[in-house]
Design a protein that fits this description.
The chain is built from 10 helices and 10 strands. By secondary structure, it is mostly helical. The strands form 4 sheets. A 3-stranded antiparallel β-sheet has the order 2-1-6, with helices on one face.
Amino acid sequence: PHLPLPADSLYTRCDPETLPFVTTDEAASSGGVLGQARAMEATRFGIGIRRPGYNLFVHGPEGTGRHSTIREILDQRAAGEPVPPDWCLVNNFADPHRPVAIELPPGHGLNLRDALARLVEELKSAIPAVFESEDYRTRREAIEEAFKERQEVAFEDLQERARQKDITLLRTPVGLALAPVLDGNVIKPEEFAKLAEEKRQEIEGNLEVLQTDLQEIIRQLPEWDKERREQIRDLNREVTRYAVGHLMDALYAEFTDFAAVINYLDALKADVIENADIFMAGSGEGAGQQAMIMAAAGRAEADLSRRYEVNLLVDNSRCEGAPVIYEDMPTYANLVGRIEHMAEMGALITSFGMIKAGALHRANGGYL
């Protein structure tokens, strides 16, 4: 039969005088779950396995302290392990759809991001300033004047040869044309028809030769203009290289021990030199163009941000030991990261700067 238990069988008094401490703050930690020595040993053994494909699974009733116990063990172990590296994503100027990942010692990723942000801000002032300098304007005007002089010399030479043959070079609404002259006046078609046959043939022959020369000059104009533009581009590259060079010297010195960063700085420098116009948006004048200037400046600012920023994917600058990451919602995006988008001009766009790290990235070199 079931007998009722007396009250004294349900309660055992512990005498506080028998305890070796005054408060529980002075008590030593048990180092695990009471009565689970085998489980603690298995846990420490599992954590110590440094091989791919091994995971630790802890199972037990609710309220037994599984999470807090595992977290305590991991924190203790991680505190004595090295801090894992930072990871940065930077633009691949040759193939923007394949950003470059750079591994750096902890804290250096943050330094690189901030240093590049400062560089871009400095370039926004330095590049427009060098293009507005008196030296640059003088050298560019010399190129423009040389092109104009080349044109004028060619046409003046043609005009002189034509004048010797009683032909003049005319500028008409549809372009340049050659016409015979008599006593300083252009011969009208009806007057030309009244000339002797021999004279007409002579004039027509001269016109044909000079027309061929005129067409050759006109054919060469695009080539000369191409040379002019190339000379201006070379000048722009030269002055931009000067503006960028001394600003980047400190960066090269700071990251000289990291080949991946030096390679990126080389690529960035070359890209800035080739795309200096990105830094020039909004430098125009004229109130009537204010709206266009502001729109161009806004687009250029966004392009600069996307083009030259450093996406600090994993920042371990504040870590002390290996990271211990707890992910209470292990969805695909939360584990492996995600690529965000933003709306611009009615379309969704993205860039390497919108790649966000997942728990696997943040826990790399530590525990998840």
